[in-house]
Each structure stands twice: as structure tokens, then as C-alpha cells.
Model the fold of this input.
Amino acid sequence: MNYIDKALIATACTLLSIRVDADDNIYTNLSDLEHFRTYPYIDKAYKKQNNQQYNVALEELNNALAIVPTHIPFLKFGYQLAVKAEKPINVQLKYLTKIPKSKRGDDILNVWLEDAKTGKIYTDTQLQRIAGTLTSKQMKNFFIYNVYKLLKKYNAETAVEWSYSKPHKYKSLATLHFEAYNLYAIKNYEKAQPLLEKLYESSHSNQTYLKFLALNTLANGDETQALKYAEKIISDSNHKDFYNQYIEHLLSTYQYRKAKIELNKLHDNNALPESFAKQHNYLNLLNQQTLKEFSVMSDCLKKTVTKISTNKAELARFQFKHCKPETDSVMWIKLASELNLYTQIENTQFNTASAKKLKKEVLLTHYKQQQKWLKIINELKDEGYKSPSLSRDLAYAYSQVNQYNKSAQIFFINYKNNHQNSDLSHAIFNALQSPNGDEIAASMVNYGLKKQKGKLLADPMFVKNILNITQRNVRLFSPQSIAAANRKIVTLSPKVWGMQHQCHLIEGLSTNDDFLKQAIAYCVADKDPLKAAKHYQSSLQQQPTQEQALLLAEWFAKANDYKASSTYWLKAVRNSTDLKGLTPYSRYLFIHTLNKVGQPTLANQSWVESDFDKKNVQWWELGIDIAKKLEDQEIFIARIEQGVDHTQSSVLTRYLAEHIVKTNDSRLANKLFENDKTGNASALLGYQIYKKDPQLALRAFASAYRYPKHKKNVDMISQYADLEYKNGNLSNASQLYKSAIDQVLEQKEANPKLLAYLQSSHKNIDLGWKYNVSGWVGTDQQNAIPGLTNSTGNYFLYEEAKYYFEKPWLPRSAFSIAALSNGGFENKLSDNITDIDLSYQIQPFAKHNSYLKAGVRQRVIGKDRKTRPYLRISSNVLSNDKWSKDWKPEPDQWLYQSLYADGLIYVDNLHDYILFARYEIGNTFKIKEKYQQRLTPYTFVQWADDSENISTVVGLGVSWNFKLFNTKYNGLNLDSEVGLEWQHTAESSQRNKSDDAALVRYSFSF
Done:
């Protein structure tokens, strides 16, 4: 294969090796919201990619593309993942064809090159489809690439037959070159002739084309025209090659007279090649020797030679069948080869050493031409190691049948024995084609470096192999070897260790090599930019280039060493053209540095002149910071407002919110609401000041809620409803909670915690009717009911219905109607009583469960049926949900304690009162998530004074709490409690009071 063929293959391989990476910043040109929404998917895609879970990564990437379907970095990333996941070509093209043609580059070409990497027999229809996706130049590159892959996969005949049959529009000059040369090589001289003539007549014609045209013409039997072409050859080497072939032609056709004349000419001019010396001497003795040769050669072989010399191949083959191989075996083998009777050569055994040797040489030459690599392997596998040349033939054959590992090992053994660079190069090439190729090739390289470091590093191909392997796996060579190779051909970036996450290989390395110093600097840049900058400084042997100065300026700026950074900015940014040429981030750091080193005026000028992305929050923050340094309040406020308008950023909105809250600037707040065309700014303002200024937050959420987008924002609606509830707008809060619940339930996978919070919040709104049924049943302790009645009994039942007004006369008030029943069992039915209670209740403090109540009580069953007005005050003193029995999502158990105080006085008799206090402490345990079941063991002490009797009771109890009846908006709507309690009377003014009692308590509210 000549240098043109190799160059074509190298070009195609280079195209295949192009890596399509996402932009350095894959989120470039995304809005904050798009960035926010796609970040979880992209971040997860990278993690899955790092774990080689490419299909999962591709699913995450597709989720991000569903949000921003035309974002080019995502599409390129998707293409990379599709390739790594070994997706079909149509899937890979799905991503690339969405990229505008102007930005595709060679991406689609790379896909087709990958499709053709094993060589494919494409139909005309398939080629037409491929051409439709590529430029003409790309299509020609693709076509020649597939031709060479077919050559490798099959043979020259298959490759040239496919190429020759396809439309000319797909073919470059290189393709015509391939067809012509390979047609010539397989002796299809008739088809090769017009192609060689076309190449010769082309603008790229050269002496090599002319030489092969002359040779092909000669092979076609037109000796006269061939010699005319040969006269035009002016290159000594090509002229020499032609005449050597011409003389061989004369000899092979037994034109001894002409051959003798040509050889004598060369001899007289001292130009006779050593390979023709024997033929020259032989022909000059031919008069006598000819008779001798013909006397030895059998008549059968002589007749065969005569037929061959007159181009009567079929007649020659017919004649040759009658020739015996035992007579002049060497000539028999030569003539059989000339007639392409290789099967007969294979099947014939010879006795003489010369014949055996020639048979092997002839068959190996034939197998190579026909690319019958398995036959070469079978011929040489037992004795292929006897000579370097035969072992190379064997190794090459193994390579052609894709047994790269065997090929590499044979070449490597040859290298160990002979130390020829070419053997090591072939060993490395084949190793790289095999599984774990980089590791095998690297071990060979490292062996070579130990033996012949200086000689090998002088070989550009060897150095390129080191650098190419390093680009893929930097772990395989020592940092010193990589640095030495890179000094020969500076192509490797010092970032390579960091890009492959292998910085630990050079951390702590002590070196004087500038390349390695820079590599170490890149490795530490993210976590310690100051250390990176100083390390990089030490690698510079002269003044930094503009690019190096820019790098140092950025690192010092990131390290907050603005003084050092400004020094390098002066070298990196020399004029306005340099400033405009900076990337947006570099320009940001430059202006930020100016501001930090006390040049806010110059920083402000550069900031104003910069054509930055108006949706970039950092730029607005920088402008705001500059305005602070300038102490220009007007610019400061204007930039905050503009930044919020452009970015809808939560950070800038927070600045605006803080300013609004600080200055109580209602004009600015109103302006924000008026200019907010999407509701985003209003919502962000609400989030920022939710706790600091609930009233303004309420206005902000109301402004955002005008827009359909935010009517679907469950999180915002939840906060909006919370504020409406706290502000006393109970009906609106209820509707908002219902809206949020509806939306959560419409989701495919509803968030159970969020749903529970919303339903609980809606349930806890005191609006409309609320019901409670509670009481106890006990032994004949004859307990009174402190706080409610001073009558005694063995049971107690309390039934209450409250109606909460949306806009009551007094805040947090309700109307109550209740029934109270208690009494004894068995013979004590006469003691049973029932009272009806009507009252109005007020809760003075929103965050404390204390109540004032005024009412009237009427006895309807029992003695003394009076109508008695009363005043009552009650309080859950601790009022902390942290200590209650209520269900809590996170902990499995928690401390329970309660302190309840109650007092009631009858207005018609101020000496008739009831006082009661009870303290409980215990621990609540979750039993089961279903129905929110809890179990609470507790102990208690209670004190009561009903104006006639004072008692102190202590005891133990256990309660079971659960919820029933799931509803859409309230969740589990029935709060239930059943418990067992033992009481011991520690002190009582009643003489007949027994010491102990057991009660069953119950309570149901909804």
C-alpha cells in the first residue's frame, strides 16, 4: 500500500475519532427556569454516564430535551450517549438532524463512518439516502472510507468490484486511484486501462500514474504504446521501475532477444540492478545454454511455454495438464503459477528442497494477493517463527482475520529478538485493535522505553501512539514518559489528567518539567485556584503569552487575589478589541476584578459597554455591586428593577424585596406587580418575604395567582393559602387548599406528604360546622366531671356542634350547642342527668389554644331543672404541637405532655363554681401508617374544686389514636381516641370517695 492509500485511511480514521462533546457549559443560553428544570435530569445523566449506565443516562437526557427540545448542547450530549449505548443509527441521527445544518459539522458524517467501520455492501438506494444527509465532499470521504473497509474485510476484488459499480458522483480522485491500482493489482488490466488514462490526464497527474499506465498498457499486450508512455517518464525512479518490469515481462514471455538487448544497455550504463545480474549473464550465454535448457525441459513444458508466450492461456492450461511435475519440478511450479493453477501446486508433493522452497514462496505470494489469510496461517503456524520475514507474514495474516492479539504478540516477539522499530509499531497497532488494547499496547510501549527510549522517542509514529493512548487512559504511562513524548510532538493538553479524573497520579509530584507543573495546576484549579495560579507561574520560563496571562488572571480572580489578577489582566486585555474577544465569563471576571481593586468607574464603563446576556443573573449582581461601590442609589435601584424584569431571578427579586421591605416603597412594589407579565416576579417576591412581611407576600401571591401558570403551582398555592388562613380569609384559604389538592390528585404520582399537609391544613380551618363526641365509662367511683358539672356518676357523654363564622362579630369566635349526660348504673338511674348548653366562644390569641366562653345551661333530665347562665375560661397551657398526640410524619415516637386548665362560674350564684387542672406526660409511639395509628402510655395528676369538694387524683393510662373515613379535601376526617385509665384518689373532701377507679375514655371529632 503506497503513501496515498495510507493518507486516505488516516484521514478517514481522523474523522471517526472526532469527539462530539457538549459545550464546556452545557446550560449556555438557557433561562434560569430552564436551567433549574433541566439540571436534575442532566446532572443525573452525567452520573449515570460515569457509571456506564448509558441507557439510563439517555432517558434522563430525553427528559431534559422534553423541556428544551432544540438545545444544541443537550442534542450533542444525546448523540454521545446514543453512541455509547450502542443505539441504532436512526436513534443517533434523531439527535443530530435536529441541529441546524450550519452547526452540524462532521457529526452526521461520523455516524455514517461508524456505520461503515466494518465495511458494508451498500446499495445504490442506500447510498442515495446517505448522500442526502451529507455534503458532496463528505460523501466522497465516506465512500473512499467504506472502500478501504471493504478491502480489509473482504479482499481487493470485492472492494474494487463494489466501488467500480457505483455512480461516479460519489467518487473522489482517491477513489479512482484505488480502483485503477487495485484493478491493476488483480490483473484486470482491461478495466484498469481507462481509469489510469483518466488519472494521467487529470490535473493531479504525476509520474507514478504515468508509470502504472505504461505498465498496464504493457500487460494489455500493447507493447508499442507502453514504450511510448515510458518515453515520457522523467522520474529516474519511476523510469527504472518501468524498465525493470518491462525486462521481467520480456523474460516471463521468453522474449530473450529483446531482454538481452535491454539488459546489455543497463550494463553498459552501469545501471544494471543486482537482481538482474544472473539473467544478464544467463542471456549472454544463451546460445549454448538454450540448447541445454531445452534439452532438460520436457517437450510438454516447452509446448506450454510456447502457448504462454503467444497469449494462448487456455491452450497453455490444456497442454500443461499433460506435463509431469517430477520432470523439472521448479519450472513446472513456475508455469503452474503463471497459469494460476494454484490448486494443483497445493495438491502436488515435491522431493527436492528447491522445489519445496519455491512451492512455499509461490503459494504464499498467491495467498497474499488473494487475501487468503487463513491459508497463510495454516501454512506458517507451525514454522512461522523460523525467520523474521515469515513470522511477519504470519502476524500480518492474523491481523487480517481480526486475531489482533496473536498478531501483536508475534510482532512483539520479533521486536524483542531484533529491536526493529517497525515490529514494535505493528505490535502496538494490532494490540490497539484488540480487547483491552490500550493496556496491552501500553505494556509494549513501556518495555520499549526501557530498552531504546532515545531511539523510540525519535520515531514520530511511536510518540503519536503514546499520546493517543494517553488521551484515552492517562493511567497507563508514568507522568514522566507522557511529558517526554509530549516534548517531541506538543499535542497533549496539560488538562488531560483532570479531564480523566486521574489527578491523584500527579498530586504531590515533585518535578521540574513545565508541562507537568501546568498539569498539576489544572488539577488543583477547582479546589485551590490560588495554588494553581502559583504552580502555573513557576512553569513559565519567560513572559506569559496572552493566553497564559488570561488563564492566570482568571485563576487569581477566582482565588480572590484581585491585586495579582489585575496584573495579568493588563497583559491579557490590552485594548477594547481584546476585551470584546473575551468569553462572557472571562469578561465578567475582568470587570469584577476592576471593581474589587478600587476602579468602580472603569468597571462600570466596561459593564455598560458589555453586550452580556440579559438573562444572566451574575452579570446583574455584578452591576448592582458596582453601583454600590459608586454609591449611586438611583443606578442601584434601576439595575435591580431591570435585572428582575429580564431574569425573573429569585436572587435579584430578593434584593428588590429587601429594598421594598426596608424602605416600605409601595410604589416599587406596585410597579413590580404592574410590570409582571408572567407572575414569576410576584411569586418570587412572595417566596422571599413570606416570613418577613406576610401582608406584602399575600399581595405578591395574589398578583402571581392571576396567571394560569401559577394557578398550577401547588407549592405557591400552598403558601398563598397559609397566608390567607393566617390573615383570617378562611373561605379563600379553603378554596386555595382545595385547588391545590385537586392538582396533586391529578398528578400521576401524587406526593403523599404534600397531599397530607394540604388536607390537614384544609381540615384545620375553623369554618362552618365542627362536631365532637367524647366521654368515659367507669366503675362505681361516682366521679364528678370537673369543669363541666359537679354531678357524680359512672359515665359521662359530651356531644357538641360548633359553627365557625367566616366573618364573626369577634375574631376567631364560634357558636356552640352541646348536650352533657352523666349518671350511675343499676339502681342509680335516678341520679342520671342531661343538660343542654348554648354558648358563644372566643379564641383571644391565634397561636394559643385558650378560650373564653359565655353561655346558658338548661337541665332537661334530672332534678333541679334550672336555667343557669355562666362564664368560662379554658386553656391548653402548653399549646405546642410538638408535644401533642397528633400524627407527625417524621419521628417514630415522641414525648407527649399536656397541661389543661379550666374554670367555670355561674352568674346567678357566684359562689357556685368549678375549677379544674390536669397534667399528663407520656410517650407517643407510631403503630401503623394506615389510619395514622398511635399508642400513648401516660401518667397524670389532676386537681379539681367544684365549690363543694376538692380532690387530687393521680393515675396511669394508655390511649389508642387513629383516624377514619378518608375524604378528598380533609383526608382522614374522623379523629378517634379510645383509652383505658386507672385513677387513684390521693386526696378528697368526700368521705365516701373510694380510692381507685378504672375508666374507658373515648373521643370522636370531625
The longest strand covers residues 909-928. The chain has a mean pLDDT of 81. The longest helix spans residues 437-457.
